Amino acid sequence: MKRAIIVHCWEGYPEYCWYPYVKGELGSKSFQVEVPAFPETEAPKESLWVPKLAEVVGKPDEDLYLIGHSVGCITILRYLETLGPNEKIGGAVMVAGFTDDLGYKELENFFTKPIDFEGIKKHCPKFIGIFSDNDPYVSLKFADIYKEKLEAEIVTKHNMGHFSGPIEDEKSCIELPDVVEAVEKLSN
Fold first, then answer.
1. Residues pairing with 7 in the sheet
2. Tens-digit pLDDT string for the chain (188 aa)
3. CA distance from start to end of the chain
4. Could you tell me the CATH number of the domain that includes residue 42?
5. Number of domains comprising the chain
6. Contact 106, 43 (CB under 8 A)
7. Domain hosting residue 153, numbered range
8. What is the pTM of this model?
């Protein structure tokens, strides 16, 4: 059975912004979808988030698709670095993802070592990155980095901010069909 796991953003939770919409849409397309609550979401820690994702995933396989939002994306990249030589997932959809320290003290812990992009690609053959041209936190330079380092297909949306909601003082992004389409594309 095809599975999808959504890794929420900083201060996010399973019912936040577009997660319930994506869960419902993919669920109606025969995906088993989980949106786990990650620990200490007010100050995410790689040392807690990566093991939590590993626990939720269980045994990774090529029917697994990971969906990240913001800090959820770097969590997915760090998780993929931990996989064994023959472990692979089907693909990953990254919404407002970044690969460098953005200058927030709370997130520095994810960037204590360089990202092993070559190793990551051995565990995840396909990436789709979804970015906004007016994201107040994540520059479009990260779309270029995703394209170069992960060979990701890039989708750039207009005026979508950080794809969030009231936490970010944005109009809530409660539907994001691009994520559903991206997962379907990766899984076909």
1. 68
2. 999 999 999 999 999 999 999 999 999 999 999 999 999 999 999 999 999 999 999 999 999 999 999 999 999 999 999 999 999 999 999 999 999 999 999 999 999 999 999 999 999 999 999 999 999 999 999 999 999 999 999 999 999 999 997 665 657 899 999 999 999 999 99
3. 13
4. 3.40.50.1820
5. 1
6. yes
7. 3-187
8. 0.97
